[in-house]
Amino acid sequence: MVKYIIKRLLVSIIVLLGVSILIYTLVRLMPTDFIDNKYSEQLLVGTIKPEQIAEFKALYGLNDNSFVGILRGYWNWLSNAIQGNLGNSFKYEKPVGEVIATNMWTSFAIALIATILQFLIAIPLGISSATHQYSVRDYTVTVLTMIGISLPTYFLAAIVIKLFAVDLGWFPNSGLVDPSAIYPDTIGGWFAELGDKIHHLILPIFVSVILSVGSLMRYTRTNMLEVLNADYIRTARAKGLSEKKVIYKHAFRNTLIPLVTILAGILPSLFGGMMITEQVFGINGIGRLAYNALLDGDIPFVMGYNMFLAILSVIGTLLSDLMYSIVDPRVNLSK
Prior knowledge:
By secondary structure, this protein is mostly helical. The chain folds into two domains: about 1-80, no CATH class; about 100-325, MetI-like (MetI-like fold, Orthogonal Bundle). The protein has 15 helices and no strands. The chain has helices at about 1-30, 35-40, 40-45, 50-60, 65-80, 95-130, 135-150, 155-165, 185-230, 230-240, 245-265, 265-270, 275-280, 285-295, 300-325. The longest helix is centred in the middle third of the chain and has 42 residues, at about 185-230.
């Protein structure tokens, strides 16, 4: 097991190196950069001269997009990253690591709650759909989940905001707290602020659950059907065990094996944020910050954010393999 982990970590270093080269090259080849975006209006009205733009680009290291210039810029970024310095964000004017560490927890809270609800809803629906295959219940659940899978995030979010925030007025349509509210620095004020945040997060979490529950439900249904057709399930039924015991004690236990690997692989989505959802609901999570940074050509932040996701993906994949070997004794990672 230890040798396997060490081997995977060494391979992961090579993977991360390749990912960083690809991301940096793509970002540098974007048609515009941070300086062009920041000073476009001033340049248009003539309050700033092209020579000054060139000086700013040289200051930020964006003046040379040739192969040598990109290679030099990547080497400077990599040298600093190895030392734990991801640079300062052009847009947010703070160290990239500080921006990520400060703003990822809001995204984490939304994603964690949505993931828990997703599993609590999708697994029972998948089991029920599989045990009543080709019934009205099966078709109804399948149709509803397929609708959820097919809806774009911005479309469903717009409908939810229009219905529950604008028409009914039950929930706020954007932000994390009421901007006009003032909470005293007391226990009561803390609970009031927490309640306000929960009130603001209901709609984003609802949208996230609706969009993600369908795929997990279908996955659970497919695995459950495969297990129910296994020989040992027929043997259990032949021995006279109740259908409830056959399903939840024997079949469901083996259905959990692939579900556990999925649970271990959701690490990037927990900390990476949801760009579109956060953008539509005006939540300053890490996903929205990354989206705005990408639009403005903020190279240090885009690099830091994407490498953060890449590291989480590598760790999540490794945990997924390890979890699979734990829940399924037939898998031997030492070979």
